[in-house]
Amino acid sequence: xxxxxxxxxxxxxxxxxxxxxxxxxxxxxxxxxxxxxxxxxxxxxxxxxxxxxxxxxxxxxxxxxxxxxxxxxxxxxxxxxxxxxxxxxxxxxxxxxxxxxxxxxxxxxxxxxxxxxxxxxxxxxxxxxxxxxxxxxxxxxxxxxxxxxxxxxxxxxxxxxxxxxxxxxxxxxxxxxxxxxxxxxxxxxxxxxxxxxxxxxxxxxxxxxxxxxxxxxxxxxxxxxxxxxxxxxxxxxxxxxxxxxxxxxxxxxxxxxxxxxxxxxxxxxxxxxxxxxxxxxxxxxxxxxxxxxxxxxxxxxxxxxxxxxxxxx
Amino acid sequence: xxxxxxxxxxxxxxxxxxxxxxxxxxxxxxxxxxxxxxxxxxxxxxxxxxxxxxxxxxxxxxxxxxxxxxxxxxxxxxxxxxxxxxxxxxxxxxxxxxxxxxxxxxxxxxxxxxxxxxxxxxxxxxxxxxxxxxxxxxxxxxxxxxxxxxxxxxxxxxxxxxxxxxxxxxxxxxxxxxxxxxxxxxxxxxxxxxxxxxxxxxxxxxxxxxxxxxxxxxxxxxxxxxxxxxxxxxxxxx
Lengths: 313, 238
Ligand SMILES: Nc1ncnc2c1ncn2[C@@H]1O[C@H](COP(=O)(O)OP(=O)(O)OP(=O)(O)O)[C@@H](O)[C@H]1O
Ligand SMILES: [Mg+2]
What we know:
The complex is a heterodimer. By secondary structure, chain A is an all-alpha fold. Chain A has helices spanning 3-20, 26-51, 60-77, 81-103, 108-128, 130-133, 156-179, 181-191, 193-198, 203-229, 240-252, 259-277, 281-295, 300-307, and strands at residues 139-140, 147-148, 151-152, 231-232. Chain A has a domain at 25-242. The model of chain A has no long low-confidence stretch (mean pLDDT 91). Chain B is α/β, with parallel strands linked by helices. Chain B has a domain at 1-84 and 160-167 and 190-238: P-loop containing nucleotide triphosphate hydrolases (Rossmann fold), CATH 3.40.50. Chain B is built from nine helices and eleven strands. Chain B has helices spanning 47-55, 77-83, 100-106, 113-127, 142-155, 172-185, 198-204, 222-227, 229-236; strands spanning 7-18, 21-27, 30-32, 36-40, 62-67, 70-71, 85-88, 160-164, 190-194, 207-212, 215-220. Chain B starts with 6 loop residues before the first strand and ends with a helix.
């Protein structure tokens, strides 16, 4: 079997064994379920940022598009879980095509600003249409609706396995893209888009496809997050939720499949422990991030790849 | 000789203005199949701008480009490339973080994996980079990076290969190899070569076009260009 496949299967097995052997306390089990779904969001973000080299500051738009599409359809229309996820995937694919089409008219800093603006518009819309979205307060998805083929998704153990499954699905998609010739062109565009163009690649449509894939995975993760944790709220559409995946990817390693997971675990527990110590925990978080970026400029996994394991995808 | 079906590419009144500067001014240019054409001219003459108009890297202010009889003036770069125009950059433009073989493989669109492998090693053999195949291209010497740029151009198997100062930074030995290589591929490829090294121009070009202030001031075989007083003045007056 290929080395890279072994690596990722082992990582997933460890996550599975932690649960099977009952190593997790209930607290960490809950944390990890959250981290896995958020890391799936990071995987989506990484396709665009890490592989294609486009820095978006508006991915919260895609995450919340999925979150609200599934949440609202369950809340107002009594959709089944499966139906609501399919709807969420469709809507986030549509929205990311639209945003991609518009935002790709710009590059660099303008691209960052345009994506940021769009996601702010979405955030304001969520607040404005409060009668439907319940605005700032958000709404809870009842336990009775969170049943998937008679599996109760609010049960912590089932929730953990579901999160692991969702994450696995996303990294296999990522792995497959990274190994495909499509993925190689994305990397070529990241490295030198002018050259990629002069080799005859339609750079714009590759970028557009990359945004669509990235946005759709993000939306899928958003939908799953709402369903597994039972809450949909406007806070998920704020700028913070656009910055988080960027941080996870930067810390874990841009353009590595497992980077978003590594980054998300790191950030989650860093904030968790730091906030136990002091109220001014953001200082600890900030300094730690500074140290990581100083000593592992390519992110934790990215640095490992650069120094030792060139084959890590 | 210049019968219409012998012409691979021609331009009509091709013009490019940069904020008032006519970098390329009303150029009517023809190049035949399997020709090696040198495009020379002093710095800033408009050579890079001219070839960029041919491949679509920049948009013309006025005029048309015909390739294989088709008007390609409004076609995007990637379509022109897939029609058979290959382009190598004056300022080395490779994927510095990828290996030599990955760089060349990227030049091979729509090819199966095994096919890619064999073309990559064939091309790297030709330019003399085969023992660098797995090296990160950013770690190559400048001359080797130029050769890689050339390898990518050749790998595309274009009908027209545009080379913008390919021998810049090559050693004498590498330049000799380069000349042989271009001679060899010209059996199947038309080469448009921008070159400052007159030794290279004189030993491989079939015909020379001289550009000055965005206009063609002379065109012809080597002897006539060497003797042309207008050309001499353009270079001396530089
Ligand atoms: N993007 C641009 N914007 C403005 N002016 C430009 C641009 N590109 C080229 N020029 C100008 O157009 C003219 C022609 O430039 P070009 O690069 O085509 O010359 P060249 O013949 O390739 O020169 P060299 O031998 O130095 O490569 C120059 O005066 C240059 O300053
Ligand atoms: Mg030039």
